[in-house]
UniProtKB/TrEMBL annotation, chain A:
Listed transmembrane segments: 29-51, 71-93, 114-136, 142-168, 189-215, 235-254
Taxonomic lineage: Bacteria, Bacillati, Actinomycetota, Actinomycetes, Streptosporangiales
Alphabetically ordered keywords of this record: Membrane, Transmembrane, Transmembrane helix
Annotated organism of origin: Microtetraspora fusca
Keyword Transmembrane: yes
Name of the protein described by the UniProt record: ABC transporter permease
């Protein structure tokens, strides 16, 4: 317990130091946040336009789609805000920055997370929460709790995939292209009812890359649509736990790969 | 304090194929290129020693230091630092060692030096009262006061190195690893760094492992050196013993009337007055001196004999 408190305290101290550093380049910060908001705004506008052209996608109404979209985006924001510096892992490895991290008596992943806060992704969180609140179906206390767990679980699914792929960077492989691709699949396909993609694609997006479990499966539970899913209803109800399990697995992969870290030449 | 036995590190990389489909083949085949950076190194270092760990570029020095700090996991062999296995017990090991890489700063680039030192104090759980005492000592020993509030990226190399030394010793680790701490520094700054290391070792009985290409550092600080090349130990012992054992010939250096300088090796047992007489008979001489063998010539010779 004391160790957890210490880790959180140090995370906060390092994060604050990183922010003080970033504030030295005020203009970069402003541009970053503004771009983030504009980017998510355009995504939001796109859905709005689509929904005004077609009354429903795969039998889902505008409101249902907006809820799904909001759930996905909020989960995504909860992943990317704390883990945004994981994106630069290839660079950290190449520049020998990871050596420095490994010299400190603190969990390496926590140190990497504390390198910066994804302020540019604040736009994601804002847009996600607005959509979620506006399109929220009437929920009982149990469903509300499930909704909360689903957002965290979804964030953990995305984190797990990103962390597992990033682990391979520790072997000096360039993984950034693969990670960007996976991220793209999550954001392009994760926000729509999977039934529109058909058998093989839906199967792959459920069981190969678990895109469906970020938002589509839990949203189906909350919207009482589990009958359409390609997984049994109990599995759908357990979907937030899948995030926890995947994250635990990804963390094990990360720790293993850290043992195989080869550092740079000097 | 430090015990290393048959330490070996083999780096394994996927074989890079050439040709248009090369990258794909690299990805799909299981062929690896292996390079042995450290090859069966053994040594022991006692508490309070200052040891120079020397070798040409690519000899395996940095790889050894990275295994001692727990950054790298050895392929085989045994390491024990202050009773711990660094790679298995990385965080506990980190608390016991200070590390300075001359080529790379450990400080927070965009923040004032004092912020970096405070963060280091936090990371190593230094209590407030001890931190204040340590900081005062570092300020005195390394004259940090002039630039304590300057962002690290604006510091000169010498100032930055003093900041790095302060950060490495702030939490009083019993062991200090220095990887080329004087690289690129001017004479004054080098002197300041050396004095700090000597002082730290004398007062705190800190064990120091020093990697450097500047043999003046070694002569100023170390009584013992470990010489490695191609991942193997070539010599481990006192500096004086090394010079005696390898005893390269003394040399007679003469400056000729036409500004030319020539060097004659003095063979063992050869009479120096006779040699001088012989040389002066053949050439008009303006000046002459006899050069004693120095560490550099000894080490150059050892490298040459090891086939480099």
């Amino acid at each position: 317990m004391a160790e957890v408190v210490r880790t959180l305290r140090l995370y906060w101290r390092l994060q604050r130091a990183a922010m003080r550093g970033a504030l030295q380049y005020r203009l970069n910060l402003v541009i970053g946040v503004a771009t983030g908001v504009a980017y998510q705004g355009s995504g939001f506008a796109f859905v709005w336009v689509v929904m005004h052209t077609f009354p429903a996608i795969g039998g889902w109404s505008l409101r249902e789609i907006a809820f799904l979209y909001g759930l996905r985006l909020t989960a995504h924001a909860l992943y990317v805000l704390p883990f945004s510096s994981l994106i630069g892992l290839d660079w950290l490895v190449r520049e020998g920055e990871l050596d420095r991290v490994l010299l400190r008596p603190l969990n390496p992943l926590v140190q990497i997370m504390a390198k910066r806060l994804g302020v540019g992704q604040l736009g994601d969180l804002l847009a996600g929460l607005v959509l979620l609140v506006v399109a929220l179906p009437p929920l009982g206390p149990a469903s509300a709790l499930f909704c909360l767990a689903a957002v965290v679980g979804g964030a953990l699914v995305e984190t797990a995939v990103s962390l597992a792929l990033a682990s391979l960077s520790l072997r000096t492989w360039n993984t950034i292209a693969v990670r960007v691709f996976a991220d793209d699949l999550f954001s392009k396909f994760g926000s729509y009812p999977m039934s529109v993609f058909g058998g093989a694609a839906q199967w792959a997006l459920t069981f190969v890359l678990p895109v469906a479990f970020v938002a589509y499966v839990p949203a189906s539970v909350l919207l009482d649509r589990t009958g359409e899913l390609n997984v049994p209803a109990p599995v759908a109800y357990a979907s937030p736990l899948l995030g926890v399990a995947l994250f635990a697995l990804a963390y094990r992969i990360w720790s293993r790969q850290l043992r195989h870290y080869q550092s740079t030449g000097t | 304090m430090i015990r290393v036995e048959s330490l070996t590190k083999v780096f394994r990389r996927p074989h890079a194929f050439s040709g248009p489909l090369g990258p794909l083949r690299t990805l799909l085949t299981r062929r690896y290129d292996e390079r042995t950076a450290v090859d069966g190194v053994s040594f022991e270092i006692s508490a309070g020693e200052i040891v120079g760990y020397l070798g040409p570029n690519g000899a395996g020095k940095s790889t050894t230091v990275k295994m001692l700090t727990g950054i790298l996991t050895p392929t085989s062999g045994l390491i024990e630092v202050d009773g711990r296995v660094p790679w298995r017990d990385r965080e506990a090991n980190a608390r016991a060692v200070g590390v300075v890489f001359g080529q790379r700063s450990q400080l927070w680039w965009d923040l004032p030096l004092i912020d970096s030192l405070r963060l280091v104090g936090d990371l190593y759980d230094v209590p407030a009262a001890r931190f204040t005492g340590s900081l005062r000592r570092m300020r005195d020993l390394l004259w940090l006061d002039d630039f304590l509030n300057t962002p690290v990226r604006q510091l000169s190399l010498g100032q930055r190195m003093r900041g790095d030394l302060a950060a490495a010793m702030l939490y009083d680790p019993p062991i200090l690893y220095l990887d080329e701490p004087t690289v690129g520094l001017d004479v004054m700054a080098k002197q300041a760094v050396r004095e700090f290391i000597a002082e730290t070792n004398r007062l705190g009985r800190t064990t120091v492992v020093l990697t450097t290409h500047d043999l003046a550092d070694v002569e100023a600080l170390c009584e013992r050196i470990i010489l490695i090349d191609k991942g193997r130990v070539l010599y481990d012992g006192g500096i004086d013993d090394l010079v005696t054992a390898y005893a390269p010939p003394r040399r007679l250096v003469v400056e000729l009337a036409d500004d030319e300088t020539r060097t004659f090796e003095i063979a063992a047992g050869q009479s120096i007055p006779e040699l001088i007489a012989q040389v002066t008979a053949e050439h008009p001489i303006r000046d002459l001196s006899i050069r004693e063998p120095d560490l550099e010539s000894v080490i150059t010779r050892i490298y040459a004999e090891s086939g480099r």
